[in-house]
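FORM 7B - TANDEM STRUCTURE REPORT

SECTION 1: FIRST PROTEIN
SEQUENCE AND TOKENS:
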Amino acid sequence: MFSDIKIAVIGGDRRLSAVADAAAADGFECAVWGNAICSGGGVRCTSHEDALRGASAVILPLPLSQDGVRLFAPDSGEGGELRLTRLVDDIPETAKVYGGKIPCDIMCMLKEKGICFRDYYEDEAFKIKNAYQTAEGAVGIAVNELPVTLFGSRALVVGYGRVGKATAELLKKLGVRVTVAARRESDLAEAVCKGMCTYNDASGLDGIGGEYDCIFNTVPVRLFTEKILTGLGGILFVDLSSAPFGADVSAAEAAGVKMIRAVSLPGRTCPVSAGISIYETVINCMKKEGVIT
């Protein structure tokens, strides 16, 4: 169906392996480089230049880079050594580029070269899917780490954005007594309407004690001070936020809090589903941009 359109899948983890599988299954000419996990989907290339040659679309990982310098390719030695500047230099000017969390300097380089690009992580539909995948992974951590069943347990969800909302809703469906800590009155009102308890954290979390079995933090701010952590006891603390995170790991350990930083959960707990979400988002972008019809 799309055999005359070449897609280059460069770097990444099992998510991009799933992307390559899906692209090949849909009939695209799919070239893969820098992904050691990829097996059935697409044709393996010996160099990124070969994979990029003649490509109409280039699909890059989420995140594009962890250090801002090299391509994110954790399972491939060669892929992880490729500098982003070199990658951009070698991308055909006629190709459309799709990546996740593209650094600003790389965006500028792509613009200067006249290459059209899209950060699929900024797509709202993708973010919603990613939030629910993250929530499912977070619940899985709680199931494995808690000494009690989730049903009937008490959980505090800090933050009520996409991930916080998805996590709170999933916990509620599993019979957890959920309390949502947020600042916006509209978020608290919504949580109440969904049968959850609320805590207004506009003035901080000093009122939080050891009444919960687990805490799920989604706010990338150090809200949990040493004083607050000390009052939590031996609680499970699942941090779903990004840097600088909700608490210091050393301070949490000193307070007896079991803290798990659950970064990029979909890529770890449901990489195939997460990869399909990336693929579907990119395909929708390609349709809107006229790459495919």
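SECTION 2: SECOND PROTEIN
SEQUENCE AND TOKENS:
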Amino acid sequence: MDAKSIVESYTYIEPVVALGVLAALFARKQIRNILPLSLLLGIVILDDIAYLVLHAIGMYERSIGYTKDLPAYNIYFAIHWTCYALSAAVTYLLIRRLYQLALEPLAGLQHLGMIVFRWVAVASVLIAIFASITPKVTPVEFIISAATQLQRTQSIMVLCLLFFLTCTAKPLAFTYRSRIFGVGIGLGMIACNDLVQSAWMAQTASFYTLYNIIKGVVVLTSMMVWIVYYALPEAKRGLVTLPVSSPLLRWNDIGVALGYPETHVVVTAEGRPLFGESEMEAMRVSQSKAAFNTGHVA
């Protein structure tokens, strides 16, 4: 069996395995809880079905002798690269969702992370756009380059998230059997593959190479990991207990302070606060207690 036959066989197997992951998510009632993963699988299925349908149409076009500027190929090109860019955007949402789930007990740190994620997303898009602009770039080359740059930046973010989950699993009271970690493992495998792909695509235009065979194995293995993690019962998450000197707790306090509105005081026409010192102190204590309760750690 040659490389072309092996790569094309993955196109038949991949949507079936993706449907298996969706079935496992549905059985565990996790479709909405981790919606970005469901959307990512949907994009994979759409891309594969588009390839199978348009490939069949392209074969028919060749059989009748129509070989110049095949419409089927042009349509698939647009669909494939649109799905490629969408998968990068949805993967960002999945990274964000995993971060939220991992830091649920630490509301302040979770809030702080969301702020960082927003700026990183904006920076990633701007880098992808400006890095793709060259003096004589064609629209097609711009689309391919921008999508590849976007995929590369989100792959780096995935690997950073996986490193974070590995280092903080014990302090955040979830084990390596947790579904948070399982989804992170699968994403990490795909991210490593995509980083290699972004370099490989610049060297060859062929879809039927040894790399694409390895890519198919990596993607299918990642999906199988997700099926196993969602098919098996999840280990119950314990209580988060942090020492007073823990950096996580300190950053959580900072996040709570940034996310909690300050108390406003009415000032009289003479420039003095309407309330006395005792009332002002009571307000400050009340605000501190409220902020503490918002980011309370069990």
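SECTION 3: OBSERVATIONS ON SECOND PROTEIN
The longest helix spans residues 71-102.
Residues 261-271, 294-298 have pLDDT under 50 and may be disordered.

SECTION 4: SIGNATURE
Preparer initials: ____
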